[in-house]
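$ ./design --mode recover --in tokens.txt
reading tokens...
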């Protein structure tokens, strides 16, 4: 069957398009299939759009047979940047049926995503994207109006054995760890700590009062006459976003699923001068790992800006490759290139758990062990 661009139209998403979109391969073109051990599959293309109050989906339909051959999502959210509440647009999950990938369908879908941004130009919004450093898209952005603001990194590790605790700290009566399930309490603490971060949500309700947030772990160390030391790790249930399917010699086996969780909003207020005695965040991270092991979780992962002071704690265990990404903004509104670059140096950036889509797990050929390599590659970075 001859396929051409003229028979393909771009239109808004309908619920009936779900089955078509779920059948389109979402693996990046440059994926190494020989080392791929598992990858995530999102059965409902609209699930990530639901994470924000406003979202848009456009699909490409071949009018010759009424089949849906591609799609793109965009969601909007209010984030605090440079001390202001700003409307941000994030395009993601751009996919095209491989039989149509030489017809510039992806470019047409991306144009519709850009149009959403332009229709809100009077609000001076910012459109942003995250790309793997030195990828094709990253190189394309270097000659476009997109500006790299800050470097990011994605860490992950396999949860397959119990990590030893610091017995001395664990037995200290001044130290405690607990799960907090009260969203109002968690929200109050997170809003206070992350207030000075860039791109932090203006309202943490969107992250805490939703079905994807499981709970938040806290660790506290109290010394007489001193401000309590506090550390925190929040858990995002990635299994409610997509399924992680294992592969064997015969290909994908939908019945062989792995469990994986995303960590986010991690922090500690412990001063550096006390770290030589103990480290409450490290102990909390170990505890989250061990608790996840008991729950049958196979992998933990986190995305962070390189400017985040918590980043050196990750990954907890070696064996999975940490990937460098870059956050890009489109120049426009109040900011020019120099202003954005200057702002990027000032404060740490908050990493939104909603920005993570497909996850691929590859065997790590450089590892001396058998741990897999996690290649975390959101399709949103392949626009």
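writing sequence...
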């Amino acid at each position: 069957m001859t396929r051409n661009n003229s028979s393909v139209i771009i239109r808004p998403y309908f619920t009936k398009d779900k089955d078509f979109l779920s059948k389109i391969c979402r693996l990046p073109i440059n994926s190494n299939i020989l080392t791929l051990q598992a990858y995530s599959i999102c059965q409902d293309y609209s699930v990530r759009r639901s994470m924000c109050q406003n979202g848009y989906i456009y699909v490409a339909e071949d009018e010759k047979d009424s089949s849906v051959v591609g799609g793109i999502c965009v969601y909007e959210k209010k984030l605090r940047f440079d001390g202001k509440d700003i409307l941000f647009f994030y395009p993601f999950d751009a996919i095209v049926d491989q039989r149509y990938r030489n017809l510039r369908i992806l470019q047409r879908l991306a144009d519709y995503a850009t149009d959403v941004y332009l229709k809100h130009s009077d609000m001076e919004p910012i459109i942003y994207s995250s790309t793997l450093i030195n990828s094709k898209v990253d190189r394309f952005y270097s000659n476009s109006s997109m500006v790299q603001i800050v470097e990011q990194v994605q860490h992950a590790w396999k949860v397959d054995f119990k990590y030893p605790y610091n017995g001395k700290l664990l037995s200290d009566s001044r130290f405690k760890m607990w799960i907090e399930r009260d969203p109002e309490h968690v929200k109050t603490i997170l809003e206070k700590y992350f207030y000075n971060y860039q791109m932090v949500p203006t309202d943490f309700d969107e992250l805490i009062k939703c079905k994807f947030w499981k709970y938040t772990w806290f660790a506290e160390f109290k010394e007489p006459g001193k401000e309590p030391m506090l550390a925190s790790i929040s858990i995002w249930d990635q299994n409610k976003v997509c399924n992680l399917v294992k592969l064997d010699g015969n290909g994908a086996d939908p019945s062989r699923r792995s469990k994986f969780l995303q960590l986010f909003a991690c922090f500690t207020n412990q001063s550096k001068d006390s770290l030589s005695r103990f480290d409450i965040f490290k102990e909390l991270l170990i505890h989250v790992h061990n608790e996840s092991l008991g729950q049958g979780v196979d992998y933990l992962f986190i995305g962070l800006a390189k400017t985040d002071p918590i980043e050196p704690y990750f990954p907890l265990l070696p064996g999975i490759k940490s990937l460098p990404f870059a956050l890009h903004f489109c120049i426009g509104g109040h900011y020019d290139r120099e202003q954005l670059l200057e702002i990027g140096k000032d404060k740490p950036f908050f990493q939104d758990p909603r920005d993570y889509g497909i996850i691929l797990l590859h065997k790590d050929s450089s590892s001396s062990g058998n741990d897999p390599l996690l290649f975390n590659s959101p399709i949103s970075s392949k626009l």
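exit 0
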